[in-house]
Amino acid sequence: MQIGTIAFLNWQYPGGGGETVSRNLGRFFLGQGYRVVIYALSRYDDILPDEDRRDFELRDVKRLPGKRIRIDPDALSRSLREEGVDLLVVQGVTIAPFEELRRQTACRIVFCLHSVPLWEVYAARSKRAADIPDPTWARKLEFLLLRRPLNRWTGKIRRRTLRLYAAMLPHLDRMVMLCPQYRDQMARLLRESGYPGGDAPAEKFLSIFNPLLPAAEPVRTPKAKVVLYAGRLNYEDKRVDRLLRIWRRIEAAEPDWKLRIVGRGREWDALHRLAQRLGLANVEFLGHRTDVAPFYREASFVCLTSDFEGWGLSLVEGQQYGAIPVSFDSSEAIRTITCDGEAGIPVPAFSERKYAERLLAAMRDEALQERLRENGYRAAENYVLEVVGREWLRLIEAL
Questions:
Q1: Domains and CATH numbers, the chain
Q2: CA-only gyration radius of the chain, Å
Q3: Are 240 and 229 contacting, i.e. CB atoms less than 8 angstroms apart?
Q4: Does the predicted model carry a pTM greater than 0.90?
Q5: Exposure winner among 6, 79, 199, 319, fewest CB in 10 A?
Q6: What is the DSSP string of 43-96?
Q7: What is the dihedral of CA 321, 326, 328, 333, to 10 degrees?
Q8: All residues at 6 or more sequence positions from 172 whose CB lies less than 8 Å from its CB, including other chains
């Protein structure tokens, strides 16, 4: 099939890692002569970069009425036909009407999962009463007494999630995972589930790293006594509250160091309150920043303390600029990014004490920092846009 127009479907735009991948790949595809359209269920015009307005064709996704978020399948299908979309790249939007899109359009469909397989299970288990919509006392009580025990101690969410992906598979041309381990794990889980659609051929599953734009010079700069977090401020996966508690240990031992938090999200107010309650003096909340490169250039370390992390885009972005990644060793992706401790600092999940100890030890060891930093520069070369983009071109040629 001849591909001329490529569209990305996002939950929001701009936003987190998945949306950054849409932007980076979109730039690559434009350079290859493709037309790029970006669809989003929510668009944040206040933080939309001017170059995105200039380069991409942006489209809103119409929703069906009601409290639940549901995409209007007829409206989206009609828009895809009118735009002449040949390839739709769905960035983790599991509520996309795949069956209707397959029936009503001629476009190829590639689904990209930007997290660990079955991340929904981890998210459900970490959900708090405060996270439920319209958290009345009655709804909180129902959640605490019924839904949370079901989520944590039964296989209900796991079975529902496997059914969801199995039902999706027959309508996809490819399912793309973040690394080979995730690819093999997802294929095995779906095959063993026994749900209709789950026995897809192995060639339907691919693994492609998330791409990095070329680092903007200078990339080798003097480092300050700064630890950086860059990402969404969400509880269910990012758990920045852990980083603040870890920082209390760090700050007491190394008062010259600063923690800078770049990003926004639902936990903004709660994290400010926690920082005040912990008495933290050297923490700065900087909000959303379109250009994070200046913060990577300055930082000695870039940290994540997530419950689960599909890839950890900020870690590899940091490596480009010599910021050493530090993260809980909670997924195959983290082990890949840190090269099993040769290009970063993996920490046994989820020990805040060990995290503080290992970060403190690295802060005080300049020779270790230099070795990890140099290895990080080399590791990041595996994820540059030209390398990853060629993988996408091979995928397109195979469709």
A1: 5-120+156-211+384-398 (3.40.50.2000), 226-383 (3.40.50.2000)
A2: 21
A3: yes
A4: no
A5: 199
A6: E-GGG--HHHHHHSEEEEPPB-SSSS--B-HHHHHHHHHHHT-SEEEEES-TTS
A7: 30
A8: 98, 109, 110, 111, 204
Q: Amino acid identity of 85?
A: V
Q: CA 336: distance to chain centroid?
A: 16
First to last CA, the chain: 7
Structure confidence by residue, pLDDT tens digits, 132-151: 677 777 676 676 666 766 76
| Residues 299 and 226 sit within 8 Å (Cβ to Cβ) | yes
Neighbours of 291 (CB within 10 A): 8
Q: Beta-carbon neighbour count of residue 376 at 10 Å? A: 26
User: 180-193 vs 156-168: helix axis angle to the nearest 10?
Assistant: 100
Q: Would you say 260 and 240 are in contact if contact means Cβ atoms under 8 Å apart? A: no
The encoded tokens of residue 160 equal 């529902």
Q: Which tens digits make up the pLDDT trace of 194-223?
A: 999 999 999 999 999 999 888 989 999 999
Between CA 291 and CA 327 the distance in angstroms is 22
Task: Count Cα atoms within 13 angstroms, Cβ side, for 33.
Answer: 4
d(CA 21, CA 41): 17
Q: Of 359, 226, 222, nearest to 286 (Cα)?
A: 226
- The DSSP call for residue 340 is G
